Amino acid sequence: MIEVLLCSVLTVLPDFLIRRFVQGKRLGREITLYSIWYELRYGITACIALTIVLLTLILYFHPSTSSAVSFYRTIPLLPEGSGRVDEIYVEMRDKVEAGQRIFKLDSSEQEAALETARSRVAEIDAEFGLAKTELAGADARIAEAQSAYQQALDELETKAELQRRNSPSVSEREIERLAIVVEGREAAVSAVMAGKQSVETQIASVLPAQKKSAEAALAQAQVELDKTVVYAGVAGTLEQFTLRKGDIVNPLMRPAGVLIPAEAGRKALVAGFSQLEAQVMKVGMVAEATCVSMPLTIIPMVVTEVQGLIATGQIRASDQLIDPQQVVRPGAITVFLEPLFAGGFDGVPPGSSCIANAYTNNHDALSAKGLSTPKWLFLHVIDAVGLVHAIILRFQALLLPVQTLVLSGGH
Questions:
Q1: How far is it, in rounded angstroms, from Cα 18 to Cα 205?
Q2: What's this model's pTM, rounded to 2 decimal places?
């Protein structure tokens, strides 16, 4: 409608002025409802043609969309395991900081497991002390066994010497008995030394390994206990948080509430443009937007990213083949727009629906050498009609409250 009015100023109005002041034809006399087409046929025809050309140039080189939304993601408040709520530290609509406690589940089972793990660590520490005491006792037993062995060996050597001297006080049977005693005392020394090595192995390898396992079990029990407390991952506001003490929270079926991040939806607009503008949309294009939640305001923006695929082409593996005819509505090119200046999104609530324009800029192309005159003129026309689109967006910003509150029946 606005494009038709602008084109009629350049076509129908001059034609009427010529008929009125040059040819002397007046409204209601020569120019009537029945003769208006014949009298103003040139202006009306030129207006229709100019409107079609203008709309084509504007909408292709300076694309517009009413599907621009400041999307944001909510964070569900879920523990890692199900349980019954024991304590609640915040209320609904509270603003929380990152790391702040929100609620706590019943932790009696986890506390018992933690205490058991601590007892196991203390038990192994006691076993360390006992093993060190056994090591000292083993040293004493080794000394005792070595003394007994040495005594038996000395007695055997003495008796053997007497036998070599043909002493009648030493019999062959006595020598054999003493040899057996020496072998037994030597085996006792080996047994005591083996016992000492066993104690040393326990102190050096077995008990440290058991202590590491016990400490790992203790750390795991502490982690399980910590999981019973749910913390805020980011700063934000709690919504739908109606949790009460005694409620059952299940991470698969029943979240405790929703956390809205403080920066959610306050940095960019996600806009969907027609596939026809896929070759026109470029990163760095200047854009403008006006939002329903902030009428009568134009927000300068810039294109920061153009998604290199179209969402409607997405497929998932299934037992049915994809039929292209099922895609009835062609998908859009997803474009990310960010405010051109700091604070440009201040006052725009997350989730707002907006109207956005993107403008093609041919400044670099016009500065190139060897540019032909027709192309130079065409690029200037393209840049000039961008002004028309900017004017249209401002008309839309002015009419947005009227259209929303009056014409659409909203209130």
A1: 109
A2: 0.67
